[in-house]
Amino acid sequence: MFSLALKMLFGDTAKYLMLVAGLFFATFLIVQQASVFCGLMRWTTATLKNVAAPIYVVEEQVEQVNETNPMRDTDVARVRSVSAVRWAMPLYSGIQRVRLADGSFKTVQLVGIDAASLAGAPQRMVEGNLKDLRLPNTVVIDELAIERLSVDFKDPAKRIKIGDSFEINDIEARVVGICQAMRSFTGGPYIWTTYERALQYTPPQRKMLSAVIAAPGKGMTMDQAAAAIEKETGLRAYVNRDFGKNERDVTTGKTTRYGDFNTATVWWYVKNTGIPISFGTTVVIGFIVGVAIACQTFYAFVLDNLKHLGALKAMGMSNFRLSLMLIFQAFTVGIIGFGLGLLASAAFAMGALKNGQPPLYMPWQIPVAAFAVIQVICMLAALMGIIRLSLYEPAMVFRA
Amino acid sequence: MNPQWSSVPDPSPSPKLVIDASGIEKSFGDGSSRIHVLKNVNFQAYIGEIMMLVGPSGCGKTTLLSAIAGTMGVDGGDIIVFDNELGKMSGAALTRFRAKNIGFIFQQFNLIPTLTVAENVSVPLLIQGLAGGKALKRSREALEKVGLGQRWKERPNKLSGGEQQRVAIARALVHDPPLVICDEPTAALDAKNGEIVLDLFSQVARSPGRAVIIVTHDNRIFSYADRISHMDDGEIVEVTKQSRTTPPHFEHEHTIALTP
What we know:
heterodimer, A: 2 domains, elongated, B: Rossmann fold, globular, disordered C terminus
């Protein structure tokens, strides 16, 4: 019977294509918009990825990583004094303006790290030597900076390279290395320098320490160390792991979840900006469009075939088998529409990854959730057809 | 006992009763818009006969046919088909009963346009749970019997009206039902095709253990009936018996044997 169902479905080419198009469009909207939203949220935590310290200690009112409430330099020593801490280093993080050779200005995300340990340094160098950062007036830039800080990026000869210089607040910054880094939420490139030099590049303020990055002591988990820091210093300590990930405490065997900076940052943006509403609206529109097109078209398909389905009913096909046929038809177009939509989303993602924007991150949960949503749409469409068919008396087939 | 039927002799010395419907009542609508469609109708049909239900439009022919076929419930009376009282059967049992015992031929053929002719014919077998390959093989054999064996791959819209009705006949008979129910089978056909189709019905009714009930108001085909029930205003007003005629050319044009 399923082959009959498929032939009936594919035989009505116009409605079949309309159904697939509707579900394709819904899938693409849902997956693409959800992925861009996740990508954007990932960008908000770019500093946590680029400065990969296990624990971030910040001023007690700080709620997310892009918010900086300066602390005293002595706070570094206070954190170091906590027995649960293996090491603790100062970190400067702030947005600064770079003056290029042609006189134009660009905004960058400046990161100052401890010169001795280089804790918080970029993890993947593409060119140059990280240790050269200890030389006077030196910086390491990320790959985006090549595009943003070059006078003429299209001309390879005019692209910024190791040895080139620019100015930050009238102080020379000479490039000694190029690294890979995640793009920041503000869209500016990351530039690393030492903590002391970062303070020179930055207009002076009474307090300038952005955060203390730290690592747990031997035998301690990140959660335990963070808890100890908070208890002993009164500062806010966040652990740095992926969004929503919990940590298993090796000593108790229990899954614990201390304040994760990634999660806190993402939730802060979700709660305090209109971003989720904007993307959520588009996702809901995708769902509504999918429901509208799929339900309307599938219902029309059932109506068009009602006399044939009624004939099958009269000939002894049960309502249950007819319903199974309709569900099978709906889910078939659902799978095809979803597959095509996912392919289109993947093509979009490849383009986005190649160009570096728009932000895009597609965890496996997005396609799975989109598949579930599409199947819900198909179920609704099938349900409408089933209700209509169940109300159709087989005797109606004798009415000309 | 049906008073109308008492005036008509039995069709054979010991006919087997296929359908015994008595006191059938059926109304549609409520209150002042209520229409009494079947009024204390008694109806019998026997094995081996072509029984026609005739009468003007709106007299209740199709409603009676639907009730006999088990596709519509009635308000009163009993319908016994092959010793099964339809009124006492559950919906699922009625559905199974129809699938096994009744072949349907509709006025508008009701062939599914996206299926091939053979696939259309195989539908009753698939409903009974036969595998697709076997069903298709038997449907091609049935198409051979109605003279369309070479056209099994074609879509219904490539066939003429008469050919489509022959496909519908093959579909109605492919699972060898003992009762064939036809609703205005010649209404959409010209005289020539109507004659071909009725020739086939004659053969079908001659098959052992089978009865054919035809609803029609096409007086060109009355001569094919063994008995005719005349309906008017929801009642059977007369039952007539006649000798069935078979056009002489039929035996040459179609050599069909519709029972295995």
